[in-house]
């Protein structure tokens, strides 16, 4: 069984530029390839950077990304 490329996604913590903290967004593709910016599944255009371990722990998942991916199943 193979997974269609369009169905693959990854999550990545993204810091908030305007306030402290951030959120984990989902992005299309198998993994982050180092690109500096991308459009999240929810449509938000965000800057990407290598997250810290604490970002993974403290940043909540984007509810919109989650709901969109859930509806695609």
Largest sheet: 2 strands, antiparallel
Number of helices: 2
Number of domains: 1
Topology as H/E string? EEEEHH
Protein structure class: alpha+beta
- Rough shape? globular
The chain-level mean pLDDT equals 89
Percentage of β-strand residues? 25-35%
Report the helical percentage: 10-25%
Strand order of the largest sheet: 1-2
Low-confidence stretches: none
Task: Give Rg in angstroms.
Answer: 12 Å
Secondary structure tally: strands:
4
What separation lies between the terminal Cα atoms?
16 Å
Tell me about this structure.
A hairpin with a 5-residue loop joins strand 3 and strand 4. This protein has one domain (5-71). Strands 1-2 form a two-stranded antiparallel sheet. The protein has a two-stranded antiparallel sheet with strand order 3-4. With 73 residues, it is of the alpha+beta class. The chain has helices at residues 53-58, 63-71; strands spanning 9-15, 22-28, 37-39, 45-47. It is globular, with a radius of gyration of 12 Å. The protein is built from 2 helices and 4 strands, in the order E-E-E-E-H-H.
Which key phrases capture this entry?
4 strands, 73 residues, 2 helices, globular, two-stranded antiparallel sheet, two-stranded antiparallel ribbon, single chain, alpha+beta
């Amino acid at each position: 069984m193979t997974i269609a490329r369009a169905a693959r996604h990854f999550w990545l913590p993204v810091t908030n530029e305007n306030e402290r903290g951030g959120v984990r967004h989902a992005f299309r593709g198998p993994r982050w390839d180092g690109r500096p910016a991308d459009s999240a599944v929810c449509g938000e255009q965000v800057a990407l950077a290598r997250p810290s371990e604490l970002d993974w722990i403290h940043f909540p998942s984007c509810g919109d990304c989650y709901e969109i991916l859930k509806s695609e199943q």
